[in-house]
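Postdoc handover notes: sequence design on the structure in folder B. Input C-alpha coordinates:
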Protein backbone atom coordinates (compact mmCIF):
# COMPACT_ATOMS: atom_id res chain seq x y z
CA UNK A 1 0.00 0.00 0.00
CA UNK A 2 1.27 3.47 -0.81
CA UNK A 3 2.30 5.97 1.85
CA UNK A 4 -0.53 8.21 0.71
CA UNK A 5 -2.99 5.43 1.42
CA UNK A 6 -1.45 4.85 4.84
CA UNK A 7 -1.58 8.52 5.85
CA UNK A 8 -5.18 8.98 4.84
CA UNK A 9 -6.12 5.64 6.44
CA UNK A 10 -4.47 6.74 9.70
CA UNK A 11 -6.44 9.96 9.67
CA UNK A 12 -9.71 8.14 9.05
CA UNK A 13 -8.95 5.59 11.77
CA UNK A 14 -8.14 8.28 14.33
CA UNK A 15 -11.29 10.17 13.44
CA UNK A 16 -13.38 6.97 13.62
CA UNK A 17 -11.99 6.13 17.07
CA UNK A 18 -12.72 9.63 18.33
CA UNK A 19 -16.22 9.43 16.85
CA UNK A 20 -16.82 6.16 18.71
CA UNK A 21 -15.64 7.79 21.91
CA UNK A 22 -17.99 10.72 21.36
CA UNK A 23 -20.86 8.29 20.61
CA UNK A 24 -20.27 6.40 23.86
CA UNK A 25 -20.12 9.66 25.80
CA UNK A 26 -23.28 10.87 24.04
CA UNK A 27 -25.10 7.68 25.03
CA UNK A 28 -24.12 8.05 28.69
CA UNK A 29 -25.12 11.72 28.76
CA UNK A 30 -28.41 10.86 27.00
CA UNK A 31 -29.28 8.35 29.73
CA UNK A 32 -28.49 10.93 32.40
CA UNK A 33 -30.52 13.53 30.50
CA UNK A 34 -33.50 11.15 30.28
CA UNK A 35 -33.35 10.56 34.03
CA UNK A 36 -33.11 14.29 34.70
CA UNK A 37 -36.05 15.06 32.36
CA UNK A 38 -38.22 12.43 34.07
CA UNK A 39 -37.35 13.80 37.52
CA UNK A 40 -37.99 17.39 36.46
CA UNK A 41 -41.39 16.51 34.97
CA UNK A 42 -42.36 14.60 38.12
CA UNK A 43 -41.30 17.47 40.37
CA UNK A 44 -43.34 19.96 38.35
CA UNK A 45 -46.57 17.99 38.35
CA UNK A 46 -46.10 16.66 41.87
CA UNK A 47 -46.22 20.28 43.02
CA UNK A 48 -49.59 20.63 41.28
CA UNK A 49 -50.91 17.47 42.95
CA UNK A 50 -49.62 18.62 46.35
CA UNK A 51 -51.19 22.06 45.90
CA UNK A 52 -54.56 20.55 44.98
CA UNK A 53 -54.45 18.11 47.91
CA UNK A 54 -53.59 20.88 50.36
CA UNK A 55 -56.41 23.11 49.12
CA UNK A 56 -58.90 20.24 49.61
CA UNK A 57 -57.60 19.45 53.10
CA UNK A 58 -58.07 23.06 54.12
CA UNK A 59 -61.80 22.75 53.33
CA UNK A 60 -62.38 19.66 55.48
CA UNK A 61 -64.26 20.43 58.68
CA UNK A 62 -65.41 18.28 61.64
CA UNK A 63 -69.04 17.73 62.51
CA UNK A 64 -71.34 15.79 64.78
CA UNK A 65 -72.03 13.25 62.03
CA UNK A 66 -68.36 13.07 61.02
CA UNK A 67 -66.07 15.22 58.90
CA UNK A 68 -67.32 16.89 55.73
CA UNK A 69 -65.64 18.70 52.88
CA UNK A 70 -66.58 21.55 50.58
CA UNK A 71 -64.48 20.84 47.51
CA UNK A 72 -62.78 24.06 46.38
CA UNK A 73 -62.81 24.98 42.71
CA UNK A 74 -59.19 26.07 43.08
CA UNK A 75 -58.13 22.42 43.41
CA UNK A 76 -59.63 21.55 40.05
CA UNK A 77 -58.24 24.75 38.55
CA UNK A 78 -54.74 23.67 39.58
CA UNK A 79 -55.13 20.25 37.96
CA UNK A 80 -56.70 21.82 34.86
CA UNK A 81 -53.19 23.04 33.97
CA UNK A 82 -52.83 19.54 32.47
CA UNK A 83 -56.09 19.53 30.47
CA UNK A 84 -55.51 16.19 28.71
CA UNK A 85 -55.07 14.23 31.94
CA UNK A 86 -57.75 12.32 33.80
CA UNK A 87 -58.14 13.10 37.51
CA UNK A 88 -59.56 10.90 40.28
CA UNK A 89 -59.82 11.72 43.97
CA UNK A 90 -61.24 10.74 47.31
CA UNK A 91 -61.46 12.27 50.76
CA UNK A 92 -61.71 9.78 53.60
CA UNK A 93 -61.11 9.21 57.27
CA UNK A 94 -59.29 5.97 58.08
CA UNK A 95 -61.55 5.50 61.14
CA UNK A 96 -64.95 6.32 59.57
CA UNK A 97 -64.46 5.64 55.86
CA UNK A 98 -65.17 7.53 52.64
CA UNK A 99 -66.36 11.13 52.78
CA UNK A 100 -66.52 11.81 49.05
CA UNK A 101 -64.93 10.65 45.80
CA UNK A 102 -63.92 7.25 44.41
CA UNK A 103 -63.68 4.57 47.06
CA UNK A 104 -61.41 1.95 45.45
CA UNK A 105 -58.33 4.02 44.64
CA UNK A 106 -55.09 2.04 45.14
CA UNK A 107 -52.74 2.71 48.04
CA UNK A 108 -49.02 1.96 48.21
CA UNK A 109 -48.00 -1.06 50.31
CA UNK A 110 -47.71 -0.18 53.99
CA UNK A 111 -49.20 3.28 53.45
CA UNK A 112 -50.17 5.32 56.48
CA UNK A 113 -51.88 8.70 56.62
CA UNK A 114 -49.47 11.46 57.57
CA UNK A 115 -49.21 15.22 57.29
CA UNK A 116 -46.44 15.12 54.69
CA UNK A 117 -47.54 14.34 51.11
CA UNK A 118 -46.67 10.87 49.81
CA UNK A 119 -46.31 10.43 46.03
CA UNK A 120 -46.53 7.08 44.27
CA UNK A 121 -47.31 5.51 40.90
CA UNK A 122 -50.08 2.95 40.46
CA UNK A 123 -52.27 1.53 37.72
CA UNK A 124 -55.94 2.45 37.78
CA UNK A 125 -57.07 1.53 34.29
CA UNK A 126 -54.09 3.60 33.10
CA UNK A 127 -50.78 4.69 34.63
CA UNK A 128 -51.54 7.23 37.37
CA UNK A 129 -49.47 9.38 39.68
CA UNK A 130 -51.05 9.77 43.13
CA UNK A 131 -50.56 11.99 46.14
CA UNK A 132 -51.78 10.99 49.60
CA UNK A 133 -51.83 13.56 52.40
CA UNK A 134 -53.55 13.74 55.75
CA UNK A 135 -54.55 16.20 58.43
CA UNK A 136 -55.73 15.88 62.01
CA UNK A 137 -59.05 17.45 63.05
CA UNK A 138 -60.51 18.15 66.47
CA UNK A 139 -63.85 16.35 66.22
CA UNK A 140 -66.52 16.00 68.95
CA UNK A 141 -65.22 12.47 69.58
CA UNK A 142 -61.56 13.53 69.76
CA UNK A 143 -58.74 13.98 67.31
CA UNK A 144 -59.41 12.41 63.94
CA UNK A 145 -57.24 11.88 60.88
CA UNK A 146 -58.67 12.76 57.49
CA UNK A 147 -56.88 12.22 54.20
CA UNK A 148 -57.15 13.25 50.60
CA UNK A 149 -55.88 11.17 47.69
CA UNK A 150 -55.67 12.65 44.22
CA UNK A 151 -54.49 10.83 41.11
CA UNK A 152 -53.62 12.15 37.68
CA UNK A 153 -52.72 10.32 34.49
CA UNK A 154 -49.21 10.81 33.13
CA UNK A 155 -49.77 12.30 29.67
CA UNK A 156 -48.66 15.83 30.58
CA UNK A 157 -45.66 14.50 32.52
CA UNK A 158 -44.63 12.33 29.59
CA UNK A 159 -44.99 15.25 27.15
CA UNK A 160 -42.85 17.51 29.34
CA UNK A 161 -40.26 14.77 29.83
CA UNK A 162 -39.96 14.22 26.08
CA UNK A 163 -39.77 17.97 25.45
CA UNK A 164 -36.98 18.44 28.00
CA UNK A 165 -35.14 15.38 26.71
CA UNK A 166 -35.24 16.24 23.01
CA UNK A 167 -34.41 19.90 23.59
CA UNK A 168 -31.41 18.87 25.65
CA UNK A 169 -30.46 16.21 23.11
CA UNK A 170 -30.56 18.74 20.26
CA UNK A 171 -28.14 21.02 22.09
CA UNK A 172 -25.96 18.04 22.95
CA UNK A 173 -25.87 16.96 19.29
CA UNK A 174 -24.74 20.44 18.22
CA UNK A 175 -21.97 20.44 20.83
CA UNK A 176 -20.92 16.95 19.70
CA UNK A 177 -20.69 18.00 16.05
CA UNK A 178 -18.63 21.03 17.01
CA UNK A 179 -16.39 18.80 19.13
CA UNK A 180 -15.90 16.38 16.25
CA UNK A 181 -15.00 19.30 14.01
CA UNK A 182 -12.29 20.39 16.43
CA UNK A 183 -11.05 16.78 16.68
CA UNK A 184 -10.83 16.52 12.90
CA UNK A 185 -8.92 19.81 12.77
CA UNK A 186 -6.54 18.63 15.53
CA UNK A 187 -5.89 15.32 13.77
CA UNK A 188 -5.40 17.10 10.46
CA UNK A 189 -2.86 19.47 12.01
CA UNK A 190 -1.10 16.67 13.92
CA UNK A 191 -0.60 14.63 10.74
CA UNK A 192 0.67 17.60 8.74
CA UNK A 193 4.38 16.69 9.27
CA UNK A 194 3.67 13.16 7.99
CA UNK A 195 2.13 14.57 4.83
CA UNK A 196 5.22 16.72 4.30
CA UNK A 197 7.44 13.64 4.69
CA UNK A 198 5.18 11.78 2.28
CA UNK A 199 5.47 14.54 -0.30
CA UNK A 200 9.26 14.55 0.06
CA UNK A 201 9.50 10.78 -0.40
CA UNK A 202 7.23 10.78 -3.43
CA UNK A 203 9.32 13.50 -5.06
CA UNK A 204 12.58 11.50 -4.71
CA UNK A 205 14.11 9.14 -7.17
CA UNK A 206 13.80 5.42 -6.21
CA UNK A 207 17.53 5.19 -5.36
CA UNK A 208 17.73 8.39 -3.29
CA UNK A 209 18.67 7.29 0.27
CA UNK A 210 19.48 10.72 1.66
CA UNK A 211 18.22 11.77 5.05
CA UNK A 212 14.56 12.70 5.38
CA UNK A 213 14.03 16.06 7.03
CA UNK A 214 10.70 16.40 8.87
CA UNK A 215 8.78 19.60 9.47
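Designed sequence:
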Amino acid sequence: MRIEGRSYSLQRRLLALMALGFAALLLIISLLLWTYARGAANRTYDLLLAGAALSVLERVSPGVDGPSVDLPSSAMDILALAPDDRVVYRVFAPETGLITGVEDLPLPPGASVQAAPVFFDADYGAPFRFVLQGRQLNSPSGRLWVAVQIGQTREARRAQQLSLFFNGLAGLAVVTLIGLGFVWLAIHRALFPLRQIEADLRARAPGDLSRVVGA
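Context for whoever picks this up: The CA atoms of residues 71 and 163 lie 33 Å apart. Don't rerun without checking with the PI first.
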